[in-house]
Design brief:
single chain; alpha/beta; 5-stranded parallel beta sheet; 5 helices; 27% strand; binds calcium ion
Amino acid sequence: MSVAPKILLVEDEAPIRIGLTERLTAEGYRVVAVDGVTAALAALAGHPDLIVLDRRLPDGEGLDVLRAARHGTHRPAVIVVSARGLAEDRVEGLEDGADDYVTKPFHLRELLARIKAVLQRVAPAGDADGRHLTSGALTLDLGARTARLGRKAVELTRLEF
Ligand code: CA
């Protein structure tokens, strides 16, 4: 790994934020930790590779950060973290373009594994066969002419592709 991936951690609960920052830094990631929506939106300018995003924040809804990230030219991967485990909340997060979803309380090792998996999936280098292009959560298969956003297939006409 030439440059360590940069992770934007958005979490208002200080013990979790501090503990995760220490662990992720120890794992070799560059970490920017913020405690709210406003600070997270400002931190998008630093072009994180991945956002670990708490849903319930004191100054707003974490999914607003996800939507903002999806509208920029730089598209970081996003793992949504939520205390809510209801199916509709999970679906809402994934429909908004989250790459993965973790429910609190989570095991640290599970989150680390998911971070690693998502970063590998969105790695900009492309696949060894050169047939895949990846940008943020979007992956294009040049051979099959199919597109995926996160894990979801995206319907495209030939022209749109
Ligand atoms: Ca919270």
